[in-house]
Design a protein that fits this description.
Its main location: cytoplasm. This protein is α+β, with helices and mostly antiparallel strands. Helix content is 36%, strand content 6%. It is built from 24 helices and 12 strands. Strands 1-3-2-4 form a 4-stranded mixed beta sheet. Strands 5-6-7 form a 3-stranded antiparallel beta sheet. The protein is globular. It binds a DNA duplex (21 and 21 nucleotides) through residues 20, 25-30, 32-33, 35, 37-38, 119, 127-128, 134-136, 152-154, 178-179, 181-182, 184-189, 195, 201-202, 204-205, 218, 221-223, 238-240, 243-244, 290-293, 295-297.
Length: 666
DNA sequence: AATTATAAAGTCTGTTATTCA
DNA sequence: ACTGAATAACAGACTTTATAA
């Protein structure tokens, strides 16, 4: 994320105080300070109360983000609109009209907006050089204004520079060191912020706002929190030396107990993090592992969207600045525009990621019409909307009577913003298109391949299956899900554990058809006595490689579907939607048990059992699509899966160092 | 001259501690 | 006592650059 070039001394035209007036709470700069912090001049409160947070990406001059494909992003579909249901004063925050008004509205809006634990700003004067926000507040706002409720450190920097007037001219390296340091410091210090491991190569972690911490009061500082519970072990060992001394212990924990604790803890996290107790949160946030730090990391998660280098580059690209409103907007709020944004984000993401063929996404978007901006919660997604109040949209495919619903969950309720569920499939179609921006690659593979491998014991290789592809009109549904960034692993393991079934995953889109098709099918061969099929499709990967494999697997599954007798196929098209009952479990499942009576004439032998993992592995490798490590055991216990997720991963990235996959591609 | 591998330097990121208001 | 800003020190991860083979 490139910083805004700065060609001048870090002089804030608005504010160059020397000493903090009695009524002013912004800190005095240290005498030796030359890092862009408020410079000393005099004790004058700035007369010019230019808005502190200007959020250029939010300004009315923001271009319309007509992403494409007939999806018109309403102007100012951004932070303004996304928060409008919460507080109209958000706008006031952005465009204060007076000092008093500004501070009042700022305080109110921001507190209301983010549920900040910050105490109301009672002073009418600036608390800091940039306004009444603390660093933590600004960070929170930055994060919450992002579509996915997460930002990298660099993006937070960028947001500061772009959105906070005070920092506008302090983006250069000379003047930014100080406040950037403070940003980092605040991120680390406050338990409000969670660091989510970004497995993108060379990418820094995502920073998210812990929805729970500080919700009902002042957000505790991390240190205070870390002093109890499990961190007692290092309580008395502060400082560098102590830190080093604890390395051994930490290493041990990382290598063993953490996996176990993750496993056990994940089992506790079948629900939304927002519903967790503080103890659980502590437990959860104890899965931290950046360079011996255990302060804030929720490791093992990846956001495929922004972790994608191409997208990151695009984000860094100034030329794409007009898109910033979208990039920083939050579709989490329940507004039509945000839903549209979410879709747009998805489209953008997918396009940028090449995660979805252009024609596919184009068709998809071209054929989407939001016929209901915010319907009552749809029946088909009752399990979701009952808990989340998600927005439901309907999309219709021209030339087809079919329609599906887009479900845009609200933030913090069911999946992070950007989550879109496409449900209510037409009778003749079912599928899922899964967007899980925060799911790790290995998670995807874990969830997909292991499941797939356990589903099918057909004796076809992938190539065989692909060769069987037919070109007739196909129908598929797309389910857009979005795994909780925090809980993608959890959701995976939980899903697996809670449904001792195995998933079939597939994804397919017939380029010749505007409809999306796919249906994954597989016998419920494990435990359920009720014959059932359920499909879980994935389109969530940021990597071409992964998508490649996903497509192949999709095709494979699609071909498997073709093997079904027509009645079965049709039944398969009538999957009912169900969903794991939590934000964390945002991995949506289409459980078709009740809808898929397996016909007696269906020969399950070809599918019953386990698809030799070697087949998939070999085929995938032959396709040169993946750079993965495969766990050798196609079927693992949930504990194993969890452990693998937390350590080596059944399909771990090449970067994984722990554990020892039995097979690693050269 | 081009390629590759390696090391060093620099940068970024993240944590912790301290001081001050 | 607590919060928050400011600052520094430190360390790991990563990137860039220089050098050698």
């Amino acid at each position: 994320m490139a910083e805004v070039p700065h060609n001048d001394i870090d002089i804030d035209p608005d504010f160059e105080p020397q000493k903090r007036p009695r009524s002013c709470t912004w800190p005095l700069p240290r005498p030796e300070s030359n890092t862009g912090k408020p410079d000393s001049n005099d004790d004058i409160i700035p007369e010019d109360e230019e808005d502190y947070v200007t959020a250029p990406s939010i300004s009315s001059s923001t271009p319309v983000n007509n992403v494409n494909g007939g999806i018109t992003i309403p102007q100012n579909t951004n932070n303004l609109s996304e928060h409008q249901t919460i507080s109209a004063t958000k706008e006031e925050v952005l465009t204060p009209t007076s000092k008093e008004e500004t501070h009042a509205s700022q305080t109110h809006a921001f507190t209301a907006l983010n549920g900040l634990a910050s105490q109301p700003r009672k002073s009418s004067t600036r608390r800091n050089a940039w306004g009444n926000y603390s660093y933590a507040d600004l960070i929170t706002q930055a994060i919450e204004s992002s579509p996915d409720q997460r930002l990298t450190l660099a993006q937070i920097y960028d947001w500061m520079v772009r959105s906070v007037t005070y920092f506008k001219d302090k983006g250069d390296s000379n003047s930014s060191a100080g406040w950037k340091n403070s940003i980092r410091h605040n991120l680390s210090l406050h338990s409000r912020f969670m660091r989510v491991h970004n497995e993108g190569t060379g990418k820094s972690s995502w920073w998210m706002v812990n929805p729970e911490v500080g919700k009902s009061g002042k957000a505790p500082r991390r240190r205070a929190v870390s002093m109890d519970n499990s961190n007692k072990l290092i309580k008395g060992a502060r400082g560098r030396a102590a830190k080093k001394a604890s390395l051994g212990l930490q290493t041990f924990q990382d290598g063993s107990s953490e996996s176990l604790s993750l496993s056990s803890s994940l089992s506790k996290w079948t629900g939304s993090p927002t519903s967790r107790s503080s103890d659980e949160l502590d437990t959860w946030t104890d899965f931290r592992s950046r360079t011996n730090s255990n302060a804030s990391t929720v490791s093992g998660r990846l956001s495929p969207i922004l972790a994608n280098p191409e997208l990151d580059e695009s984000l860094d690209d100034d030329s794409i600045a007009p898109l910033s409103p979208m990039l920083y907007s939050s579709p989490s709020r329940l507004s039509p525009s945000t839903a549209t944004l979410g879709l747009g984000d998805m489209a953008l993401t997918m396009n940028l990621n090449d995660g979805l063929p252009d024609h596919l996404m184009g068709d998809f978007l071209d054929n989407i019409s939001l016929t209901a901006s915010q319907q009552p919660q749809g029946q088909e997604v009752e399990s979701i909307t009952n808990q989340t109040g998600s927005s439901v949209f309907t999309y219709t495919c021209p030339g087809s009577s079919s329609s599906s619903s887009l479900v845009v969950p609200s933030s913090g309720s069911f999946g992070p913003p950007g989550t879109i569920f496409l449900l209510s499939p037409p009778p003749s179609s079912v599928a899922s298109l899964r967007q899980s921006p925060m799911q790790t690659i290995q998670e995807n593979h874990q969830a997909s391949f292991s499941c797939l491998s356990s589903r099918f014991n057909n004796h076809h290789t992938l190539q065989d299956l692909m060769n069987l592809e037919t070109h007739g009109s196909q129908v598929s549904d797309v389910m857009l899900t979005h795994s909780d960034p925090m809980m993608s692993q959890a959701s995976t393991s939980v899903t697996l554990s809670q449904n001792s079934q195995r998933n079939a995953m597939l994804l397919r889109k017939d380029p010749m058809s505007s409809s999306i098709r796919d249906c994954a099918a597989g016998p419920n061969s494990q435990t359920s006595s009720v014959p059932g099929w359920w499909a879980q499709a994935g389109l969530s990967t940021p990597d071409n490689e992964v998508l490649c494999s996903s497509n192949e697997l999709s095709q494979q599954a699609n071909q498997l579907l073709q093997h079904l007798p027509s009645p079965s196929r049709n039944s398969c098209m009538q999957l009912g939607g169900s969903c794991t009952n939590s934000r964390s479990g945002s991995l949506l499942q289409l459980n078709a048990q009740d809808h898929f009576p397996i016909p007696a004439d269906l020969d399950l032998e070809g599918f019953n059992g386990i698809l030799d993992c070697d087949i998939i592995r070999n085929e995938l490798m032959d396709a040169d699509c993946l750079g993965l490590c495969f766990d050798h055991s196609p079927l693992r216990s949930d504990t194993q899966i969890t452990n693998n997720l937390s350590t080596a991963g059944g399909f771990s990235s090449s970067k994984q160092t722990s554990s020892s996959p039995s097979w690693v591609p050269s």
